[in-house]
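quick one if you have a minute, typing this from the bus. below you get a single protein, a line of residues and a line of whole numbers that encode the local backbone shape. could you go over both lines and see whether the tokens make sense for that sequence. anything you notice is useful, everything is just below.
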Amino acid sequence: MKPLKKAMFRALRSITRPLPIILTVVLALSLIECLPLKDISQYIGSGGFVSIFLSAIIGAISAGNAMTSYILGGELVKNGLGIGVATAFIVAWVTVGIVQMPAEGTLLGKRFAIVRNAVSFVLAVTTGLIFALIFW
């Protein structure tokens, strides 16, 4: 009976240990998702490498989920962003997690978190450029 009690205690500890980190990430994301769409489209522009790069940076900092990205992408294009800029923003918004990076580094390793986010950012910019070239 003693090994079972010890295993249950370890399991409970492994579940509750990351809870403060996860709660902090969720709270930070809820604050960041309050960005007004018209301001984003007004300052970024509608095309070009610089616009795509800036939108990827803003998307990486903002961080969001895939469920709402379809609606957000349509609204960004409707509010004046080019398709490449909106694509880079959405891809970075969903895949790059600057806000979640401390939690990801703690749970999965710092090197993994840095490499995954860097690769995701480069792919977000590349995808935005490809979409801008295709739908120009």
The mean pLDDT is 82.
